[in-house]
Structures are given as C-alpha cells and as structure tokens.
Amino acid sequence: KVGEVPIVACAHEDYLRGNFDLGVQGFRDYASRYPTTDLADNALYWIGECYYSKKSYKEAIDAFTQLLNTYKTSDKAAAALLKKGLAYLELGDRSQAVINLQYVLYEHPGTKEAELARSRLAALGVKVR
How far is it, in rounded angstroms, from Cα 22 to Cα 18? Predict the structure, then answer.
C-alpha cells in the first residue's frame, strides 16, 4: 500500500510536465503491479491521456478500451468513452466517433462528459435526443 501512491503521483507529475512517455511507463508499471487497487483504472485512463496528448490516437483508444473492458464500473468510464470518441474523430473515423460519443450519452446521462459528447455530436450534425 505504501509504495503504490508515489508511483501514481510521479507518473501524474510526468504527465503534467509533458513527459508523456515517462507517464505511460509509470502508469503502466502501477497498473501491472497493483491491478486490484482503487487507482488501477485511473492508471489505465491516464495511459490513454498520455497517448492522446502525444497524438498517438490508436494507442489512446487501446488504453481507454482496456479500461472499459477491465473495470466496467470505473468512475473513469464516462471520460474514457468520451476521449475514445474524440480520438476516433482525430483519426478521421467519424462513424466510430459518433458511436462512442452516443454511448457516453446513453451509458452516463447527466454527466459533464455527456454534455461534452452532446455538443460534439451537435457540431457534427448528429441529432440526439
């Protein structure tokens, strides 16, 4: 328990400083060493954020997908789905982007991520209820 928090804190500092490769390494180390802790899903989310920030969108999608498949009830699920949709947009895959953004609305209504997804869908000309 004592060793796990510094790993996440250091990795997050790397992310904040723009050291995305070090961030990925730290978060990946944490996720593999402590897969059953409360922060394991967060580590996967931040791996996705590091890749997204590097414009490595395919890797970001993979990290967000791993989070969503492994930690189905994660408090990061709405954010991961949103970022996954945005990453697909960056790759020019409009249909996958729309699907993921719509999932945010249906799976996580009332969240700030749902509002962001709604506005992005509207900007794409997609009608949502």
Answer: 9
Q: What is the residue whose two structure tokens read 């996954």?
A: 84
Tokens of 12: 């997050």
Dist CA 15 CA 22 (whole Å): 8
Residue 4 has pLDDT above 70, yes or no: no
127: left (phi > 0), else alpha (psi -120 to 50), else beta?
beta
Check pLDDT > 80 for residue 77.
Answer: yes
Residue 12 burial class via C-beta count within 10 angstroms: exposed 0-12, middle 13-18, buried 19 and up: middle
**Residues 101, 81: Cα–Cα separation, whole Å:** 7
Measured in residues, the chain has a length of: 129
State the DSSP string of 71-86. -TT-TTHHHHHHHHHH
Sign for the pseudo-dihedral over CA of 4, 78, 54, 56: positive
Answering whether pTM is above 0.70, one says yes
Contact predicate 46/63, CB 8 Å: no
Element (H, E) at 68: helix 57-70
- Rounded Cα distance between 42 and 40, Å, is 5
